[in-house]
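Researcher: Predict the fold of ABC transporter ATP-binding protein.
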Amino acid sequence: MLDVQGLGIRFGGNQAVQDVTASIPAGQITAIIGPNGAGKSTFFNLISGFYQPTSGKIVFLGEDITPLKTHQVVARGIARTFQTTTIYRELSVLENAMIGHRVRTKAGLLDALLRTGREKRDDQESRAGAMRALERVGLATQANRPAGALTQEGQKRVGIAMALSSDPKLLLLDEPAAGMNPEETVNLMALIRELVAGGLTIALVEHKMSLVMGLADQILVLHHGQKISQGTPGEVSRDPAVIEAYLGSHAHGGQMGQSTQGADHA
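Model: Structure tokens for ABC transporter ATP-binding protein follow.
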């Protein structure tokens, strides 16, 4: 579905991602893991058009999307969530989800000001698309509640619904389980499985290795901005390069499979 070839980006003298060649196959869950500072979130930012690469190419469904802006990437069928839940707490759950659908509408500012027929049709389409997304994440009955009144898990689901309402083919989840307790994490895993069973392709960055090992069909491992391994969870967990990277990232003899803390800043 998505292929990156020799992908890289440099910030001043820092090569945050370097010469990464990898693929995200359709209909599967691909996890991107690595020690803090490995370049995972930067990799997502490149794929989703937030950053423009300084080298390499990104191909999605056979189209070179490397030079596209974020809204153009979303329109092609790639949506993402972020490490921190980026919802509008004072708006309703439905209104939040509608924001994600707006990328699919055609009405402009003048239409909105004049309340033209096109604006009204787009509003109806956005409501319908948002409700479909809320049904997929189990929040349809909460549609009219303020988003800020939901639990941490509920707010995470609102963020996922915002992405889903743009009708993506590929969903990028950036640390979806951050801040969740074990029960909420199990619920999130079930939701992700349901979304993939419904035809979605998912790539996720995650520090909780229990979630990664329990969900992923394949794992891409980054270290210092470079790909050091890609394969099934079993293959990756036995890879000497991966074991060394994780051992070296913990001051007190941590190991692959241990949950690391904090955000990925690279």
